[in-house]
Design goal:
Length: 317
């Protein structure tokens, strides 16, 4: 399926909330832990249906993660919902020690990730969360691209034991997956075939990568587009195949260019199939204050920006 930014846009938080409520109706172990983030996490419906299964710890993210770890040890399946910037930065020690090191069944849901809170400035940007979470042992890291994938990610998280970080944006995205798409942890989805270059993205950048591929096709460059929703564990096989068959890779992420998806892909490429690469993202700086569309354009995270990076890589290396 080839989506465009002009298509109907969906808030993946809606798919998250609807799926969580549906699962909770069948499984009493599912609980939600929040930090005064009921509204932004869209779990108001969950609170209304299951008032005894939503724990609001207030603005105390370290306690929030610790409480969730305790609930998991008691046999519950806690979904911890908070702004991604505060969840990962403030509670990183608890995520490392109480969740990952202890290997507890906690699902960390980073809401409004990337630069979705753009107008609130650098304190609210979450452009380091891939880097922080993917290096922690036992942690699965996933950034779904559309509502279908979001729903399947939540279903998978609920039935798969172990620590997970799920990265959800509040930015509207179109559907990029067909209705018969089946999400699997650690498996990339090939959304467009191509032999000349590979575009690898996740989250809100997937649609932009697809549009960039359409622009490249007009100039005779056939780009393969991979949705790498799972950042850890990576689909190494798909990356190596893309490198060997297309000879060049551009990654695009709403994250720092250090330590995120691009870095993870580069680690696989340099060890297995060295090819030319370009990593698009926030280039190791604090992103300025501004609405999300402005910030994405500012850093070249647009269809045009991805197209230009890919064309330059093919032309000049």
């Amino acid at each position: 399926m080839n989506a465009t930014l002009d298509a109907k846009l969906f808030d993946c938080r809606d798919a998250f909330a609807e799926t969580l409520e549906r699962l909770a109706e069948k499984d009493e172990r599912i609980v939600v832990v929040v930090n005064d983030s009921v509204g932004s996490s869209k779990v108001g419906g969950f609170k209304k249906k299951f008032p005894d299964r939503l724990i609001n710890v207030g603005i105390a993210e370290q306690n929030m993660v610790g409480v969730a770890a305790g609930l998991a040890n008691a046999g519950f399946i806690p979904f911890v919902c908070a702004a991604a910037c505060f969840l990962t930065a403030r509670a990183l020690e608890q995520i490392k020690a109480d969740v990952a090191y202890s290997n507890t069944n906690v699902k960390l849901v980073g809401i409004s990730s990337g630069m979705a809170y753009g107008a609130l400035g650098p304190t609210h940007h979450s452009i380091e969360d891939f880097a922080w979470t993917r290096v922690i042992a036992n942690m699965t890291v996933i950034a779904p691209a559309d509502p279908n994938e979001t729903s399947q990610t939540i279903e998978t998280a609920a039935k798969t034991p172990g620590p997970m970080f799920l990265r959800l944006s509040r930015m509207g995205v179109p559907e990029v997956h067909a209705s018969d798409y089946q999400f699997k942890i650690g498996k990339a989805a090939t959304l467009r075939e191509g032999k000349d270059i590979s575009l690898i993205a996740n989250g809100v950048m997937v649609t932009r990568a697809l549009e960039a591929a359409s622009l490249l096709a007009k100039e005779g460059i056939e780009a393969r587009v991979l949705n790498m929703a799972t950042v850890r564990p990576l689909d190494k096989e798909a990356i190596i195949k893309a490198a060997r068959e297309t000879g060049a890779i551009v990654t695009a992420e709403e994250h720092s260019t250090h330590g995120g998806l691009g870095s993870a892909v580069a680690e696989v490429v340099v060890e297995n199939a060295p090819v030319k690469m370009r990593i698009l993202g926030v280039p190791g700086v604090f992103a300025p204050t501004g609405e999300a569309p402005f910030l994405l354009e500012h850093f070249g995270l647009t269809p045009q920006g991805i197209y230009e990076a890919a064309k330059h890589l093919k032309s000049h290396g």
